[in-house]
Description:
By secondary structure, the protein is of the alpha/beta class.
Amino acid sequence: MADNFSYVFPAIRGVQAGREYYVSMCPLRLLSKIFIFDNEELMPELRAQRTLNKARVPDISRYIVNNPQSYIFSAITASIDGAVSFAPVGSDNVTNFRMGTLTVDMHAKFIVNDGQHRRAAVEQALQAAPELGDETIAVVFFLDHGLERCQQMFADLNRHAVKPSSSLGVLYDHRSAAANVAKHLSLTSKVFHNLIETERSSLSERSRKLFTLSALHFAILEMLPEKELEDFTAASKKCQEFWEIVGAQFPEWIYVRESRMTAGEVRQDFIHSHAIVLQALGRVGKFLYQSSRPDLPKMLGKLRDIDWSRKNAPTWEGRAMIGGRMSKSSQNVTLTCNEIKRVLGLPLTPEELDVEQAFSAAHGFSAQLKEDSK
């Protein structure tokens, strides 16, 4: 009797590369029941997709649960390994001929070619919000023509996928409190106005912009806890106050605004407009606001005592730069923050002290090796 049962999907039939494919909708509650993964224990050569990165799933799941009125997903692509038949609604015109029902044998397997993390996240999200189960997601069905074809589909689907730049992601993100503060600051602060690149996350030598929006966004995340960011007005006011004072300590930033220097010249000769320094300054700002709130202009005025030149290799090599190139690793952000706090006379946290001691030990060992090699 089981042979008489089938999956039936309302579908639209199309043709790509001479092969039929079908577009349909699937209720979220059925997604995990119908679509399967390859056995992750198989060697990559015997699988049709990458293994599931389980660390990504909770983030996607929270996105669904936290935005039940506005979440959005692109279609899942799947291959059908089994018998199928398509019954058009009618054949009196092209439109009706393409619309119909797709019948799939109950014993067929549905293998996800693209969208396995969305599928897993939906399954997890429904445990917290089962009411979303009747909502749907688009599915594109292809017929399975063997493992080689499935692997080629995976490669082709991901061949031209390009993740948008971090700056553009911040610009278009209206949910993130930090993104909203960063965008507001880029428009209203005289320090950043007209000097923020909002589309790219790296700056060319000829760019007239001095900072990227993503760098400012990361600096704000370092400066303000998530709870403070929820109050947009207060968060914007605090950021405005802090960065106006900071900006006054860098003559080169002012020279760029006044067209006395180009942004490219500043980035080439100094490190203080790069993302790692903005993040480190944001972390210093967080420490200052959480402490006894000293005289900020007086305290931050000591930033002028720091030699921010790229040529100051004894200070910045290994701390903000690796081999003469800027580094944005979390460890380098901490080491840069430590140097700023040292000049400002601020104590290090236990975590910062651990990183500093490890750096000092490694730096001393490296210096000894150079001495021994002479």
